Amino acid sequence: MAEKFINIQALYAMLELEPYILLGCLIVIAWVFYKFFLKEATDERHKIIRGHFRILIRHFVILSFLFVTFIFMQSSEAQLGRFTRFTPYVAMLIFIWGNVVFVKTSRLIVLQYMFLGSMKHGVPLLLVNIFSLILSIVLTLWGVTKIFGVELGPLLATSAAASIILGLALQDTLGNLFAGISLQVDRNFEIGDWLEINAGGQKATGQVREMTWRSVTLVGFSDEMITFPNRSMASAQISNFSPPDHPILRRHIFRLAYGTNIGHAKQVLEHAVAGIGDVRGIPAPWSVVSDFTENWIELKILYFIDHYSAQFTIADKVYSRGIEALNAAGIKFARQVVELSDTNPNHGSSKL
Questions:
Q1: How far is residue 27's CA from residue 41's CA, in Å, rounded to a whole number?
Q2: pTM for this one?
Q3: Topology of 185-240 in CATH?
């Protein structure tokens, strides 16, 4: 029965000992790569990679059992009798399982290679998934051609119209897919980065949590989930507040009473903000006069921080320390002045 559908001679030729040994060597190479090049990865990343290795080893053990069974059945055809008719099916199962192990091993190697450039935040899985999908399709088409003898050329030619219809139906999906590939190739941001996105009038701020084939997911300051399609992200204006070695500049305003000693007020404010542990000492905080009127002087304090997510907590400390330091130095804050005018020329204006 199996001979009608399967090219048994070609199938058996693929199940030699050499491909099995090469597959085992590929797994060993993946393990050696992990042990020597990913020592500095975080504990969470080590846990993820080891989980992939455990799954891969289980699959290889099952493949080994099937391979040994196949060899036994080939060498014992006379003793097995009618049970030898199951040998082609076992061989087919080994071929499929071997392809699964090969795809998983190749995927793991690519995943580890990408970890080299992003050990801190992790790796977006879109490119890894696309690689696995393409490799699986290639192996499937190759297996269909070699084992079942199906000529794919005429089949692909007659399916051109169906491909056009399918492409039009999946236009948005494919657009998001290729936009996602472009985003990950450009690497303008990574998982864990804080972004401010302005896309078509829609503005959002959050930390990148996930990058899939369809969208980018952010987590906002209130732990809300924000999802942007990849096509929107590709055309959006994106501000990244998490690049390495680039501290984030923040500023706050203090309004002081007119006539305040500006030089003394600057020193007091700069010293107070410099004493906050979350504020960078280099560059040091500095203050400038940003505006003034006849009633108040606007003093702006500028400082650098390292973590965008902590800006509100740090801002609270800056305001609190600044107010306490200015009050302790006897520097008065501006008061709201309201002028009331009377339309009667016999009465003068008054101030409150």
A1: 20
A2: 0.59
A3: SH3 type barrels. (2.30.30)
